Amino acid sequence: MFSINRLVWQRLLCAVLIVAFSVALVSPIHAQGKLTFAKITEQNVSQLKWQRSVSAGVMLNAAWSANAKSIFITTRAGVYRYDGANLTASPTLVSGDLIYTQNAFFSPDSRWLATIIGTGSKLRLINLATGEYWTALEDPRHSWKNLAFTGDLIVGTTDAHRLWVYSISRKRVLLTINDVNEFALHPDGKQIAISDNRGIALWNLSTLQQTGRFALRLPYAYGLRFNADGSALYTFNANDFIYVLDTRTRKEKFRVSTTNLYAMEYAAQGNAAILWYSDSTTPFLQIVDLQTGKRTFNLRVTESTRQYTSPTWLAAISADGKRVASLSWDNKLRVWDAVTGKQLREQRISDASFLSFSPDGSQLLTSSISNVLRYDLESDQLTTLTGDYGRNIGDLVFSPDGKLLATAITDNVARLWRVDEWDHMHELRPAQSAASVYQAVFSPDSKTLLLGTNEAGWLYDLAQLGKSDANQFANLTKQACLVAAYSPDGKYIACNASSTVIVWDAATRKVVWDYATLLDPNNPTYFNTLTFSADSRQLLIAPFITRLDVLDLRTLKLKTYDLSLSQPISAINFSPDGKWLAVQDNVNTVHILDSKTFKAKWSVRGLVRSFDGFRSFIAFSPDGSFFAAPDWGAYLRFFDTTTGKVIAELNPNTSGEGTYNFTGITFSPDGTLLAGTTDLGVIMLWGIKN
C-alpha cells in the first residue's frame, strides 16, 4: 500500500513539475501582454531587462528575393522577410537582432544577406538559411557605400575610397585596393571594373590582378554598370556625358550628352536606362537606348512644377527594361510601357521613401507615410503589408488607466497599442493637411486623446478606437499646437501655439485665457514648453527667454520667476506627487526645483541632447522617488529625486538589442514598465518579471 501511494505521489509530483516548467516557459510571452511584472523601485531598478520591441522601425528600402517568393523590408532596426504568398502574416526579423541598420545587400541566390550596421563601418553577414551571422568586415571611422556578391566572394567599397575583397567560406579579407571611387561586377562574376584617379581599370577576381585599363581617361567616373552580356561598360562623369565603352577593345563606342542630370537607373537585364533631372522646369523622365545612344521617349512625370523642387522624387525601371515608374513631387505614381511610351497606370501615393519593381516587372513595392505597399500592375490593386513600420517618433505616453500606449510620429500619424495586445496597432491620421504630429496627450479619464500638430489641435474620442470611423477628429484649434497638455483634474486644455499660449475649458472647449492679450504685437514672444502643476492650480510656461511664467488658474493672473539660468528652458516636468519640478535648459542641464518656492535643489549636466529641442526626456517614477533620463541619448541613468544620487544605469548596448539612441522615455502608470522610443523607429519596453 505504501509503495503504491509513493508511486502515485511521484507521478503527481512529476506532473506538477512538468506543468510548472511549461508555465515558466510560456509566462514571459503572457507577461508581455498582461504586464505581469514587478513594480520598478529604487531598490530593483538596476535589474531592468529588455522585454520586447513594438513596431518594426524606420523604413529604408524594400526588395524581392531572386526567386520572387519573399519580400525583404530594410529598416533602421534590421531586415524583415515576408512570405510572398501570405503578405498579411507578420514578417520575420532575419538580420540577427534589432540593431541600427544603414542598408542591406542580398546575394543573387538569396542565400546571404549583408547589412551595414552601427555607424556604418561594420558589415554583418547573415546566412538566411541557418540564421548564422558575424561581423565580416569593418573599416573603422568609415562607412560602406556599395556591395556585390559573386560566388564565395563579397566585393565592397567604403567612403575612404577603399575596395575590399572578402572570402565568405574562409572568413577573411583577400585583397584591398586604395583610391577606388566605384566598382561594377561583370555578369560572369569573374572580373570587376573599378574607377580610380587615373580612369577605369579591369581586375580578375580569380587572380586578384589588374588585367587592363580603358583608353578613355575618366578620373573618378560614376555610375559604372556592365550591360547584360558584359560586352559594354556604362559610366558617366561630372554630369556631362553618359559613356558607353567596349570591354573587348577598351575604347569608347559613343557618348550621350546630359545636362543637370540628377540620377540614372539602369535596367539590370537590358540595355536601357532612365534619366531624370534636378532642373525644376524639366518634369520628364528620359528613356535611353544604350545600344544606340538614342533617347526613345520623354515621359512626363507631373503636370505642374514648382520652383527649387525636382519634379521627380523617385524612379525605377524593371529588370528587363520594359516598364518605368516614377513618383513626382505632387505624390503621383505613374507607370509606363517603356517600349511604346504609353502610360499604363496612375495612383496617388503620399510621402513614399522607396520604389522597386518585382523581378518579373508585374508589381511594384513602395511606401506611403509609414506603410509598405505592394502595387499589382495587372489588377491595379494596392495591398498594404503588415508590419507597423514607422519613422520619427516624437513623443510617447501611457494612458492614465494604463490600458493604451500612444506615440506621435512626425509624418501626420499617431499610433496606439493596447498594452494587452502589443502585436496589434491602431493608426490615427488627424488630417490630410497636417504634416507633423508633435505630441499625444490623454485626458485624465483616458477617454480622449489630444494630438498637437503643426497646423491644429485635434481631439479624438477613444470610444471610437477600432471602429470604421476611427479617424473622425474634433478640431480644438486651427492654430498650431506644438506642445499640448491636459490639467490633471481634466478641467483645462492648454496648447503652445508658437507665438502664444491658449487655455481652454475642456468641457465647453471655449478659450478662458490667451497669452496674446498680454503681448506686444510688434514684439512677438515665442514659447518652448508648458505643463500643469500636479494640483491643477497652475500652468507653468517657458518663454524662449531665461524665465519661468506661472499662470494661476483660479485668478488667471500671471507671475514671472527668474531662475538665474544661462539658457532658456526647453522642458518642464512635475513629479507625480507634485513636490518637485524638473527643468531642462538648452545647455543640456537639468535642475530639480522645489515646486512651491521654485528654488533649485540640485542640478546635473549631460542628461539629454541639446539639439532635441522642446521634447522632454525626463521620466519620473509614478511615486516620484526617482526619475530616468538619457545620458546624451546612449545610456539611461536613474537619479534619486531628493539627493541627485545616481542609483542605477542602463546601457542599451548590453540588452542584446544593438546600438541606438533614445528619443523619449516614460513609465507605465502602475510603475511596472519603462518604455523608450529610439532612433531605430521602434519602442523598447523594459521590465522586471515576477
Main features:
single chain; 690 residues; mainly beta; five-stranded mixed β-sheet; four-stranded antiparallel β-sheet; 1 helix; 61 strands; disordered N terminus
Brief summary of the model shown:
The chain has 690 residues and is mostly beta strands.
Topology:
Elements: H1 2-34, E1 49-54, E2 57-64, E3 70-75, E4 78-83, E5 92-93, E6 101-106, E7 112-117, E8 122-127, E9 133-138, E10 144-150, E11 153-158, E12 162-167, E13 172-178, E14 180-185, E15 191-196, E16 199-204, E17 209-213, E18 222-226, E19 232-237, E20 241-246, E21 252-257, E22 261-266, E23 272-277, E24 284-289, E25 294-300, E26 312-317, E27 323-328, E28 332-337, E29 343-348, E30 355-357, E31 363-368, E32 371-376, E33 381-385, E34 389-390, E35 393-398, E36 404-409, E37 413-418, E38 421-428, E39 437-442, E40 448-453, E41 457-461, E42 474-477, E43 483-486, E44 492-496, E45 501-505, E46 511-514, E47 527-532, E48 538-543, E49 548-552, E50 557-561, E51 569-574, E52 580-585, E53 589-594, E54 600-605, E55 619-620, E56 626-631, E57 635-640, E58 646-650, E59 662-667, E60 673-678, E61 683-687
Parallel strand pairs: 2-34
Antiparallel strand pairs: 1-61, 2-3, 3-4, 4-5, 6-7, 7-8, 8-9, 10-11, 11-12, 12-13, 14-15, 15-16, 16-17, 18-19, 19-20, 20-21, 22-23, 23-24, 24-25, 26-27, 27-28, 28-29, 30-31, 31-32, 32-33, 35-36, 36-37, 37-38, 39-40, 40-41, 41-42, 43-44, 44-45, 45-46, 47-48, 48-49, 49-50, 51-52, 52-53, 53-54, ...
